[in-house]
Amino acid sequence: MTDLATSAQSLKTALPNPKEADNVLYNPSLDELRELARGDEITTEFGSPSYVSEERSRNADKTKNAVDAEFDDEDYAYLDAAVDYAETEAMICVDRLMGRHTDHSYRCRLYVQKEFARIALAWAKLFEPVADDADPDFVTIQLPEWDEIAVRILPDEGVTAVLGSDYTGEAKKSFLRLHMYYAKKAGGLGLHAGSKRVTLKDDDGDLNDVGQLFLGLSATGKSTLTAHGLWLDGDEEASMLQDDVCALLPDGTVAGSEGNGLFVKTIGLDADEQPAMYDAVTHESAILENVDVDTDGTVDFDSDLHTSNGRAIIVRDQLASADADIDLPEVDQVFFITRNPVMPPVAKLTPEEAAVAFMLGESIETSAGDPSKAGESIRVVGTNPFIIGSKGEEGNRFRELVSDLGVECYVLNTGHIGANAQDIGVTESVTILREIARGTVSWERDEQTGLTIPTNVPGIDITEFYVPDHVEDFEQKNVDLRGERLAHLTQFDDLDAAILDAVY
User: Fold this and answer.
1) Do the strands 150-154 and 63-65 form a parallel or antiparallel pair, or are they unpaired?
2) Annotation: CATH topology of 189-259+316-504
3) What's 129's DSSP letter?
4) CA 408, CA 410: separation in Å to the nearest integer?
5) What is the side-by-side order of every strand in the sheet holding 159-163?
6) What gap in Å lies between CA 112 and CA 82, rounded to an integer?
7) pTM for the full model?
8) Which fold, 11-36+59-166?
9) Does residue 224 or residue 104 have the better pLDDT?
């Protein structure tokens, strides 16, 4: 029996060599993987495969990493047992490349039980094929038929064991989590964010690029806004580079991670509101997971029969708004997406206030995180549930990066304002994003809210969304909220005092 608890041997070398082991099917084609998964498939009306998993969200409460927790013999025993299983049982092994950035791309290897070929198929569509036989940088072994759920991570070795879960998202995040961690080790910061390039004409008619990042929990509008074309035409355009995870590096470049596909939510997907996304999700190249599909193949994106966290793996080439590039040469603007009803549609932030927004990560819980608490208020540092290491250091690093790089930062409310629900729709959010990119928004510091808010946004009457007009007893609620925020941030001992002083 392999004993990782007492040996310096890495899981990467303890696992069977997939090129030699008789029990391992190494790098099968996508067609082969689909054929292996045929028994679990319902074929949709679009000709794409659809699967239903037992686990339908990540198991954050059963996940531990060796940087933030001291592993004991029980933790290492999970890794030992996973290796022992893979040495004798039928396995699939798939290699893929995560990222294209010269200094921030990684070869990833996924081992999964052969009877769960659908996981390998879905995961393989997200990342790009590798071009050589080099050893992997990161390795994950996923054994869904384990008798308990446990996710154990050795970040510095680049290895993860996912036991007892058949959710594709666990495989995907096992690698993206390490992508973010290694960005921090390189002096940058991994972000749970979408990246976008907006190309606009200046007053002289010349085209200029604006790089944007969107930080937000799943289901808060991050994917919608990242992929939106901003209603531009002619030579002006907006292109999505990344949808989920990227890395802000010290030189201002943003390294992408997923080069081939995207893992998008499907609940409420509408052809009229999101035509490009709808076309990609309903293309035969997509894979649906936990979506309501009838036995005759009819798909109902409005149904939460299995979960409200229904997903689709889509191919980037089928998403009209997706660019061929996944790396952003330079970031100019960062947007924190919230659904806090006492926040304006948009506010402009200083670097210190931006670090406050980063540390607060105010939003609502979604079905992708904890389905039992979906809809409740939540605070997640960096709106990123995958941070490895000190959270306070992440906030300090973020402030340093945006300050040194001269990045503009904003908080964007995509929900509603006040109890009377003054809705902020896609039209308002998209107009705000487009005009901020153009530099046509006028700003002023507002005494009542304590924030820098717009006085004029071409295309909408921004005065209709003034928060104090829609929140009863706003002044007291704002005082109480600031107190809550300050109390929340004081738990991070290593957070810089200048950031605490900037709490709004």
Assistant:
1) parallel
2) Phosphoenolpyruvate Carboxykinase; domain 3 (3.90.228)
3) P
4) 7
5) 24-26, 91-98, 106-113, 138-143, 159-163, 150-154, 63-65
6) 10
7) 0.93
8) Phosphoenolpyruvate Carboxykinase; domain 1 (3.40.449)
9) 104
